[in-house]
Amino acid sequence: MKKLRFLAVSILALSIGLGGVNAATSSRSIDKSKCDTVYTNYYFFVDIGSKTYYNQKDLSSYTHNTIAEYHNNSWQVSDFDPNNVGFGQVKLGKGTTTSSDGITSMSLNDFWTYKKKAYNTNGAFSDGTKNYVVSHDWYKVTADNQEIKQNSSTSLKNQSVSALVNASLDADITFTRRTSINPNSANPFKIQIFRQFKGYLTGKPLKINNNEQYVQPALYYIQYCSPKQNDPVEPEPEKEFNVRYHGNGSNVTNLPNNQVVKEGKCFTVGNKPSREGYKFLGWSTNSKATTGESKYAPGKEICNLTKDLDLYAIWEEEKTVDPIVELYRVTYKDNANGDTVVSMPSDAEVSIEKDYTISTMIPVRDGYEFLGWNTDSKATVGDDEFKGGSLYQDRKDLVLYAIWKKKETPTPTPDPTPENPENPKTGVTDYLLPFGGTVGMSGLGLQVLKKKKSFKQF
Hints:
Immunoglobulin-like; 4 domains; 6-stranded mixed beta sheet; 5-stranded antiparallel beta sheet; 3 helices; 31 strands; 5% helix; elongated; disordered N terminus
């Protein structure tokens, strides 16, 4: 039996041939009994629609027709049977799990997990006999059946799987092939995708370019096989060479898997790895190189190895630029016409991404009562919206003025009367002696006290 040859996946998707089949046929099952190995290719299709477009209406009032085109550049076998090719759509659902044959159903969680993984491998990745492809071209069909290619720069790469699942709309999906597919051909293959939405908007939309968006996933597959041989011949032992990929640094992710290449066969150089804070310059056989070698560029086909090959990732540290943080300012004014005010809050500069809590400090001004803060310097009362501890959420520059009320002046206490109630008349005449002493009068003794205003009697 002839061996399979794996070709690298680029940003384009795959098209597998099926000669002479009606282009309108939407699905066909493969005859696995005739296959030595069955290969399955999955194609991910995602439309994106704004929340405003659906406008909270019953989704059943919406339908969506799109055309996708993809190309043949992945799993290919030179001896597959063009008359035994299967194709069709995969049913998606939030609660479904992948079926035993991996074809009839797939959970949305699996769908987005595979799609995100393919994003990180330049459009596709392989897992055993399965290949997951996400890249394709979109077309719009005009009223006169003309096709206009659509361009889109929207990326879902940085969205989490849970967010993508939550933003997925439920729809009944029908695939129709608009062109024939031919064996061993890289001709573009187009399918038309018709969506009939169901129910109402649920879940949480994605925030993309400051717009709330929902996503509408769909999944198509093609299967083909290496046919069984009537008289299999045991092949002679072949030499094998190892291709090993080295991250050549810390925290390297998406490093390609090592490969085993048989003598005389070809292999494709692995895709770009990732390393936070560094730019990937290419692969080199020298770990201390300062640039990658063009002959080992990612995606390039290498043939006729004669020994094991070690490829090292070459990195260049990226210069980081501190992001510009937009701020708004909160300013406190004492509004005291030059009087001294203590315990004034400090002005604040706050990131425009955060709310601000009004200061709870209470300023003090001699002779005045503090009534609160107001944006009007001439106000007579504080504004409850800006009382201490309240949350300011407008995220714009804010000037707050202290509002004061003059305290009332207390009524002065009158001076004591000449007849001091603390020294009432006793009927005895008091006399002051120049240097102190006592004088008797009417049989009573008086003690002279050195006081300015009153004297204590005994």
